[in-house]
Amino acid sequence: MSRYTYYHVLYVGLINIMMFVPSLLIRDRFNGAVSGMLVAMVIGSILSLGTMACFERFPGLGFPEICDRYTPRWFRQINILFAALCLWLPAGIIVIYAYSETVRMFFYPDINPFLNLLLMATAAVWACSRSTRTVQFIHEIMVILSSPLLILFIMKAIFNENINWDAIRYVAGYVNKPPSFMTIAASTFLFSGYLSLLIFNRLYTVGFKFHFRWIVPLFGILFLLVTFFVPIGFHGTVGVENYVYLWSMTADSMVTEYGFINRVLFVFLLLFTGLSLLFVMNTWHTTIMLLRYSINGATEVEEDPVPWMNVWLGVGIGLLTLLFMRIVNLERNQYFSEGWLILRFFVEIYFLFLMLYFVWKQKKEQVRL
């Protein structure tokens, strides 16, 4: 069962290749990005492994139930609503807006942007309103189907004969520059797949263990290095900053000879469309389940038929996404992304200390017994 958590870690690491992190790292490549990445590797590993170890002590319980057990009701409500409305909800909105615009620009630039976003939001709303177990199964199927090809393309990029290793070594030489805080906050997001345990820990039965947990920091470190250095190797130390859609242009720099696949870009974008919808499904489903616990204490992981509350909450989130498009553009969305990444960084640290407190309270209870 613990493999499901690793699926979350894998797709969060993959989705960052196309979303928030690359442009932020490239922007500071001469001003602390490399040292910031090294610091983020340590912090991200501690946060992920520490939080996973804490949740391992509470099999079958999500964060809301654990919080309810050891804290007053008002404190629990504040934590749940804050996590739902300030962490998980905006994550999905930011990603689906940014990726709908990316796909539209490359595939069908003449389509109405609201129609394109509506189509993607409709798919995400339907998926996120399913039961927790169904969402988990969708994760497994999508990751198994899409990750092999994506990893193949990434490996092809790393070992491409046109990649300039001198440019990579030149930028890596700026490791002595003091780390940028924005770089640290952004880079730790590649380790953040473990946060799905806030809700999906309900699926784990008594006695489960996270075997091979070293995979989590390994995934984060590998994807972080690829996200930053591969575009520099393809486009150069200076030219890399000239691209708005950095990894899309990097993918377009490669061709393959595998059957019907020649131009990597279009397959690359199709696969990442699936991963982006997977990310949005996860974040919005977590939002719905947190809000439902706050309203009526719902904790069920298997629900057939799907409760209408899930559907209406999903529709409300979809409408918020369309409203978000009316008030932002890609540049403003980047600012929202940076603010959200900083907020998430502090929230992850807060959650780890909170979970350590819950483990301490649990041990005190066991001693009394």
Secondary-structure blueprint:
Elements: H1 3-15, H2 21-27, H3 33-55, H4 63-70, H5 73-107, H6 113-128, H7 132-158, H8 165-172, H9 181-187, H10 197-200, H11 215-235, H12 246-251, E1 255-258, E2 261-263, H13 264-296, H14 308-327, H15 330-368
Antiparallel strand pairs: 1-2
Helix pairs in contact: 1-7, 1-11, 1-13, 3-9, 3-11, 3-15, 4-5, 5-6, 5-13, 5-14, 5-15, 6-13, 6-14, 7-13, 8-11, 13-14
Mass-distribution shape: globular
In what order do the strands lie side by side in the largest sheet?
Answer: 1-2
Helical content stands at over 70%
* Helix count, DSSP H or I runs of 4 or more residues: 15
SSE sequence, one letter per element: HHHHHHHHHHHHEEHHH
Helical/strand content category: mainly alpha
Contiguous uncertain segments of 5+ residues: none
Please provide the count of β strands: 2
The biggest sheet, with number of strands, parallel, antiparallel or mixed sense and barrel status, is: 2 strands, antiparallel
Could you report the average pLDDT, rounded to the nearest whole number? 87
Q: What is the terminal separation in angstroms?
A: 30 Å
**Strand residue content:** under 5%
Protein described:
- With about 375 residues, this protein is an all-alpha fold.
- Strand 1 and strand 2 form a beta hairpin.
- The mean pLDDT is about 85.
In short:
This protein has 369 residues and is mainly alpha-helical. It contains 15 helices and two strands.
Features of this protein?
single chain; 369 residues; two-stranded antiparallel sheet
